[in-house]
């Protein structure tokens, strides 16, 4: 059985925990050599995923895959550029860039939200994606395209992490909604610019997921019931739901898909 990402190289930002960890693991399972990047190597201790005591890159290697950890603050241009260079130096090229690193702060209206929280949210969630696209595509343009399973060619693929918060307004999340809406617009624009060069650029828009970022909310019985009530499908999402979508967008199955927002929200925005 042929693996979907055999002989491909991927970078995943925010790979130590949550969505990024799940994506890195599934890409490696399908044959990709994965550069796992984050501010810190270890996972958040309050996450829901198993094997939290084992770092993502080490877990990939334990399972027979190829991986390397490279620390990176995605708001710093030189660090993101160095991340892409490290991937190429280690594995020879770059085929998939997953711009997943993101932050969110406590619920607040625009009146209550702190300016420094807004600045940090925009820096990580928007500038971090912008820099990841910038340096990944710069590398894609330098390297020769590779053959896909259908005989066509591709130079590279970008998967950005947006959110349903970039498609609709969520109460008391002004900075987060603004940042994810920016990712939606940025993804569409870059997809248009580089379609002719056979570079796919898409984004995933997850709904409510069980991750360490929202654990405090999910442990509140009233909030948990409220979130379930907002989501038509009879469960909340998991990081594995998002990882499977990222695998699709990173694979040759998504060849003719670019500038798209893949919504995984249990029907939230369809209401």
Automatic annotation (TrEMBL):
The answer to keyword Ligase applying to this record is no
Database matches in PROSITE patterns = ADH_SHORT
What's its EC? 1.1.1.47
Keyword annotations: Oxidoreductase
A single GO molecular-function term is: glucose 1-dehydrogenase [NAD(P)+] activity
Tell me which Gene3D superfamilies the record gives.
NAD(P)-binding Rossmann-like Domain
Keyword set includes Transmembrane helix: no
Q: Which Pfam families match?
A: adh_short_C2
Q: Transmembrane segments in this chain: where?
A: none
What family is reported? Answer: Belongs to the short-chain dehydrogenases/reductases (SDR) family.
NCBIfam families, per the entry = PRK07231.1
Q: Which PANTHER family match?
A: SHORT-CHAIN DEHYDROGENASE_REDUCTASE, SHORT-CHAIN DEHYDROGENASES/REDUCTASES FAMILY MEMBER
Q: State the name under which the record lists this protein.
A: Glucose 1-dehydrogenase
Query: What organism does the record attribute this protein to?
Result: Paraburkholderia madseniana
What is the organism lineage in this UniProt record?
Bacteria, Pseudomonadati, Pseudomonadota, Betaproteobacteria, Burkholderiales
